[in-house]
């Protein structure tokens, strides 16, 4: 990672092409992000491949005006940022590494905030920005709905939580069961579409529909399932915490499960409405 220089301008244009979804760079609404680069308030950082030193991504910001605003414009004193990554380096955390560095640059130069725009369908990017303190301030676009997001740079400690997640309440009521650690996995435990079986040295734990549990099995029923809409990269941090934290503040007890792609949070039926309200109050969407 290094600070951008005037010699990086051609690469910044390449990254603008990637960041804009391969838009026409001659479009004034796109070119304003780099035209006449080097004016007061412009700054960039460039990511380098650790193996061969080639440029693999860039992040930059600049001040916009109300006469020529960017898509993420909030006011004339708040720079708007953009991030681009070369196609063969995506999924390697390049954008996540560039963002906090650029935020530190803006903070060191006296800016109190940064803004951006991001497509709502790009949920991975929305989560990335949320983990770095960006919050949604408005919604723009009809054909391609986007969020305008803003981060307050006066707080130097990153929030570490995701400001927007989408969750879905699954049908049915679950039971959490405990069997002996040497017990063979029973057929009823895996008969439904949603179930979980975990064996440890101390127990065999089963989560399944409460109606499938035979009499005499130690269990607790009445659990509702909230599914986080993933998938999530293993490198993403704060995902489950972003759901658990508001539920804990609301006094809602939970039982959590994680899979390769996503997380599931179980809450008791009597606490479901309170849980949904707490999550929506934190900006999450619950279907």
Using brief descriptors, characterize the structure shown.
287 residues; alpha+beta; Aminopeptidase; VC0802-like; 2 domains; eight-stranded mixed sheet; four-stranded antiparallel sheet; 15 strands
Cα-atom Rg, whole angstroms?
Answer: 23 Å
Shape: elongated
Q: Tell me the helix content.
A: 10-25%
Percentage beta strand: 25-35%
Tell me what you see in this structure:
Helices cover 21% and strands 30% of the residues. A hairpin with a 4-residue loop joins strand 10 (196-199) and strand 11. The model has no long low-confidence stretch (mean pLDDT 91). It is of the alpha+beta class and 287 residues long. The chain has helices spanning 9-19, 28-31, 94-108, 123-131, 239-249, 272-281; strands spanning 2-3, 43-48, 55-62, 80-85, 113-119, 134-140, 146-152, 166-169, 174-179, 196-199, 204-209, 219-228, 254-258, 263-268, 285-286. It is built from 6 helices and 15 strands. The strands form 3 sheets. Strands 8, 9, 10, 11, 12, 13, 14 and 15 form an 8-stranded mixed β-sheet that branches. A 4-stranded antiparallel β-sheet has the order 1-2-3-4, with helices on both faces. A 3-stranded antiparallel β-sheet has the order 5-7-6, with helices on one face. Helix 5 (239-249) crosses helix 6 (272-281). The protein folds into 2 domains: 2-152, 3-Layer(aba) Sandwich (Aminopeptidase); 166-286, VC0802-like.
